[in-house]
Design brief:
The chain has about 230 residues and is mainly β. It has two helices and 19 strands. The strands form four sheets. Strands 1, 3, 5, 6, 8, 10 and 11 form a seven-stranded mixed beta sheet that branches. It has a four-stranded antiparallel beta sheet with strand order 2-4-9-7, with no helix packed on it. It has a four-stranded mixed beta sheet with strand order 16-13-12-19, with no helix packed on it. A hairpin with a 5-residue loop joins strand 5 and strand 6. The termini are far apart.
């Protein structure tokens, strides 16, 4: 317990270790692998920890122990990566019911330095797995509940609802007026849930429409304006 209290979790870019890929989507059964890279000049210890997670409507993630309905076989749970080398982790996964998703965290320790406060450093890198059936959301399953621009904050709020029991992923959003355009990264739309995203809009000309791009269809919605 004393050791745990002395650990500091830091963002991945700060120490330059990497995991690839970060996210992977499989069918109902996964047989995959991910690679961990140790860019430092010292050996690092890694312990794996698989967890289930939930994403709120506004994108905040909460984690919990791996759901018993998800079955995961890892090639190893802990290992050591020599300096400037990489390590491959293999796994198989399936769920009693798809769609399902979870994350495998790789916890790096063994750094030869501490923070200014004397705390040990632990780096966590996630590899997120989606187990998805062939059925995906259709255009009729997705509705734009809100597409509103507020001039005071210069932001567009989008709220998208997935009415189905299938997983969906918006691959990207494009917001435009007659002379300007901004794009926003994609985001998952979980079954029977809503998802809200905010997009900055700096132009003095109000945005007019948003186009959401999915794998097999697009959605277009007029943007309302308030606060002028």
């Amino acid at each position: 317990m004393g050791c745990a209290l002395g650990l500091l979790f830091v963002a991945a870019p700060a120490l330059a270790q990497t995991v690839r890929p970060v996210i992977f989507e499989y069918g109902e059964k996964a047989r995959g692998r991910f690679e961990l890279v140790n860019d430092t000049l010292e050996p690092l210890n890694v312990v794996l920890d698989a967890r289930s997670f939930t994403v709120s409507d506004t994108g905040e993630m909460s984690y919990r122990p791996l759901d018993p309905s998800i079955h995961l076989k890892l090639s190893t749970m802990s290992f050591r990566i020599p300096p400037q080398q990489s390590y491959l982790v293999f796994y198989e996964a399936w769920a009693d019911k798809a769609p399902a998703w979870f994350v495998i965290y790789s916890n790096f320790t063994g750094y030869g330095f501490k923070t200014a406060e004397g705390m040990n450093i632990r780096l966590q890198l996630p590899h997120t797995v989606y187990l998805l059936p062939k059925q995906r959301v259709k255009k009729a399953d997705v509705a734009v509940r809100q597409a509103a621009y507020t001039a005071a904050s210069k932001r567009v709020v989008l709220r998208v609802e997935n009415l189905s029991s299938e997983f969906g992923r918006c691959l990207g959003a494009e917001i435009s007026s007659r002379r300007n355009k901004v794009t926003h990264n994609g985001f998952p739309v979980f079954p029977e849930r809503q998802r809200e995203v905010e997009v900055a809009w700096e132009s003095s000309e109000p945005p007019e429409k948003v186009v959401l791009r999915f794998a097999n269809f697009t959605l277009e919605e007029r943007i309302t304006t308030a606060g002028q």
